[in-house]
Amino acid sequence: MLYELKPVSFRLKKEYDPTQALGFGLIAEEVEKVNGDLVYRNDKGRVESVRYEMINAMLLNEFLKEHRRGEEQDCKIQQQETTITELQCEIRNLAAVVNAQGSQLQKVSAWIETSEAKAQFAQNH
Questions:
Q1: Domains contained in the chain, number
Q2: Does the global pTM surpass 0.70?
């Protein structure tokens, strides 16, 4: 709901603000379309102004939700980083095992080739 509100900038008439400083706020009629509880009404039931204190409380609530979500994401990121580190270690260990097995296979292959060569030599002579 808060995301539907559209802030505007404005300058008051000189009779109300001689400096005509730039102000920021919401248009009460637009706020009413989003949520009628966020506006003040006059005796005739017409929209008069925005209940900024309610909007501020809602904004604080949204901020707190986002903050909690950010903390949860930080925790998940930390867990993922730990998992990645563990997996990298495991990959290094597995690579070492594969290299050792490759070396053993080379030795066995060399032994077999030597054995076959000796057997062939013995048959031929």
A1: 1
A2: no
